[in-house]
Amino acid sequence: MKQLTFLALSSLVSAQAAGYSQCGGSGYSGPTTCASGWTCQYQNEWYSQCVQSAAGGTTLTTKPSTSTTTAKSTATTTKATTTAANPSATSFATTNGLQFEIDGKTSYFAGSNSYWIGFLTNNDDVDLVFDHMDEAGLRILRVWGFNDVNTVPSAGTVYYQLLKDGTATINTGADGLQRLDYVVASAEARNVKLIINFVNNWSDYGGMAAYVTAFGGSQTSWYTNTAAQTAYQAYIKAVVSRYKDSPAVFAWELANEPRCKGCDVSILYNWIKTTSAYIKSLDSKHMVAIGDEGFGLDTGSDGSYPYSYGEGLNFTMNLAYSTP
Ligand SMILES: *[C@@H]1O[C@H](CO)[C@@H](O)[C@H](O)[C@H]1NC(C)=O
Ligand SMILES: *[C@@H]1O[C@H](CO)[C@@H](O)[C@H](O)[C@H]1NC(C)=O
């Protein structure tokens, strides 16, 4: 008798999936309804998950057919309203000792890079990236917050800033910063955190070379060129103002791999000081990172390239600076 009761109970329990458990997906044969207070939400062809009903996600208690048409329309209905397994944001990300703190949790967090996500023109594609990150347990994504050009590209190609003949024009249109707006909104919906970078050392997506074309000088004088720095700071202000209240921002990053070949290390140090203080004057709440590669180590040096100062960086000195 006892055994029968137990069997009956366990089959009752397993008839409903618990919170955050799988409840559907291709090849899945477990329960497809969720415990009371939870709703089965479609994530992708292979995975549906029980999310809190109050979250307002799309209800889908049965696995969608695997035909392309159904999968497509289902993906459309889940966009932007998706609530991920991640807890909702309660505070801005910060440091805690030698680790980071996200929503009260102190840890090392896994993350990834996607320079291209803000250049996508389809919202569903952006959502898909964050859905996959969420499934993989990745909390932080580093993205390009810049896309500089010297001539306006053909229609439908995203760019954020036009640098031409000594003038900088920020593109806040549908093919401009509105694409980055969507990245931030989609990250917010899934509580993924973003590292947003402001300029490239390299010429991909414009970078310092695009400033040099518009304002003169060279890549190494970029850091001290008044016209270039004025435009760079105006661009930083435009981006920071848009997202400074967003919990989706993990940190701002000054540049991608800033280098100043053959320069005295004081050049980059002073630029790091000035720029990070400027960002903090616009937004004192989010973290600011350099975006460098760690060149110029004083301790444990074996004299090889990464330890050297030839790229104009003194890691020890740069890291010691604490932005007010
Ligand atoms: C980036 O830095 C390297 C090393 O200092 C330099 O050689 C290169 O020209 C820089 N990139 C651009 C686009 O100027
Ligand atoms: C780098 O910075 C540290 C700390 O300020 C200093 O002690 C060291 O001498 C510097 N090294 C070079 C090569 O600039």
UniProtKB/TrEMBL annotation:
The keyword Secreted applies. This is mannan endo-1,4-beta-mannosidase. Residues 15-51 form the CBM1 domain. Keywords: Glycosidase, Hydrolase, Secreted, Signal. Residues 1-19 form the signal peptide. Its main location: secreted. It comes from the Eukaryota. PROSITE patterns: CBM1_1, CBM1_2. Belongs to the glycosyl hydrolase 5 (cellulase A) family. Gene3D superfamilies: Glycosidases. It is an enzyme of class 3 (hydrolase). InterPro entries: CBD, CBD_sf, GH, Glyco_hydro_5, MAN-like. It is found in: Secreted. It catalyses: Random hydrolysis of (1->4)-beta-D-mannosidic linkages in mannans, galactomannans and glucomannans. GO terms for biological process: mannan catabolic process. Its EC number is 3.2.1.78. GO terms for cellular component: extracellular region. GO terms for molecular function: cellulose binding; mannan endo-1,4-beta-mannosidase activity.
